[in-house]
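Renewal narrative, Specific Aim 1. Our central claim is that a sequence can be written position by position from structural information alone. The example that follows is taken directly from our test logs and has not been curated for this report. It begins with the structure tokens describing the chain, in the order in which they were read.
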């Protein structure tokens, strides 16, 4: 149910399909299926998935963030300054760090190594949460000839840097170090320009699944920012964004609400209305592809001000059945249909003009009237 790949045979999110280096992921109806026999375990799909439908199991995103939080809090409480988080894998990164310790000066005191199975499993939340917790830089250690494609991690780093730069943390807070030699690793670490650490670091405890972690991380990153802004424009395929809806063209058919896999778009039981919760939007594009009027455009961004509440996209007065007074449809739609048919269509002209009353009735009354008339 979390997967935003497809609804009603209309394709939406394809992030994991586009990134998988082995072709282990294939469409399977409304969702995708992962062939465990073909999967190389790189975690690129989990890092890119905005809903958490694809997730890395060991460690899961929540456990990894909790470990990062404990590490940074302990370091700060011990008097440490200018913390740099260094993600590394066990197969390449750990032996390289060991070699630097055995044959060189070892890691600088402010560099905090964090082991993960694959650095390609790191999502946007893993890159930005350490910054919110007070780290001045975040790096991932990769081989100069990596086993897995780095397209996904490069995209997440770009988003993290854009957010960090826009919020005043620094230009290149996050980055990748490609090294197979301990001396090259040492030189790369020496060249890191520390970003601006927050004067009031966040203290939030990471809880929940991927989307919840992404949302709380973004809000805390904004709250702790040296120079916060209300809105940050993001590149296409970012896991956050808004919708630009041509309200005049929207008929409130609510097809988009039915297609939305995350509940970002919703309606009302009281009156014809369309609501949008930006913090829940994953930019899958299903709403835009489903909309029969083609009035929805995706807007990749983080609008922190809009995340506080659900906004009204459009609402209208309902049209009440002329027989039973039950509300059905929207007033503007019914009146527009009547205007197009009245005196212009032979079925509703002359002696047949009274048939227009059928358009003004709810479905039950319309059937009853048609049967009675017949």
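The sequence written for that structure reads:
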């Amino acid at each position: 149910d979390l997967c935003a790949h497809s609804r009603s045979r209309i394709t939406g999110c394809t992030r994991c399909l586009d990134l998988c280096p082995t072709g282990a992921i294939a469409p399977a109806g409304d969702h995708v299926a992962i062939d465990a026999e073909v999967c190389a375990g790189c975690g690129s799909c989990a890092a890119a998935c905005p809903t958490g439908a694809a997730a890395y199991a060991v460690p899961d995103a929540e456990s990894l963030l909790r470990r990062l939080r404990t590490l940074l809090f302990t370091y700060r409480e011990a008097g440490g300054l200018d913390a740099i988080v260094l993600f590394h894998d066990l197969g390449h990164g750990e032996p390289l760090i060991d070699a630097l310790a055995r044959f060189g000066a070892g890691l600088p005191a402010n560099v905090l190594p964090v082991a993960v199975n694959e650095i390609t499993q790191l999502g946007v939340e893993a890159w930005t949460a350490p910054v919110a917790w007070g780290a001045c830089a975040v790096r991932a250690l990769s081989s100069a000839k990596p086993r897995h494609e780095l397209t996904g991690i490069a995209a997440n780093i770009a988003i993290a840097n854009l957010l960090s730069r826009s919020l005043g943390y620094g230009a290149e807070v996050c980055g990748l170090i490609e090294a197979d030699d301990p001396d090259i690793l040492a030189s790369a670490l020496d060249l890191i320009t520390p970003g601006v650490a927050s004067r009031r670091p966040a203290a939030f405890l990471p809880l929940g699944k991927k989307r919840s972690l992404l949302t709380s991380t973004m809000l805390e990153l904004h709250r702790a920012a040296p120079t916060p802004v209300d809105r940050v424009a993001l590149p296409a395929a970012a896991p956050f964004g808004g919708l630009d809806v041509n309200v005049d063209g929207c008929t409130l058919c609510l097809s988009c609400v039915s297609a939305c896999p995350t509940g970002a778009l919703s309606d009302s039981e009281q009156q014809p209305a369309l609501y949008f919760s930006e913090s829940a939007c994953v930019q899958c594009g299903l709403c835009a592809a489903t909309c029969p009027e083609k009035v929805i455009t995706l807007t990749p961004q983080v609008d922190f001000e809009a995340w506080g509440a659900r906004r009204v996209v459009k609402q209208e007065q309902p049209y009440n059945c002329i027989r039973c007074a039950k509300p059905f449809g929207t007033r503007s739609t019914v009146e527009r249909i009547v205007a197009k048919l009245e005196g212009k269509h032979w079925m509703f002209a002359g002696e047949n003009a009274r048939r227009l009353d059928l358009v003004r009735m709810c479905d039950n009354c319309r059937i009853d009237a048609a049967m009675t008339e017949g």
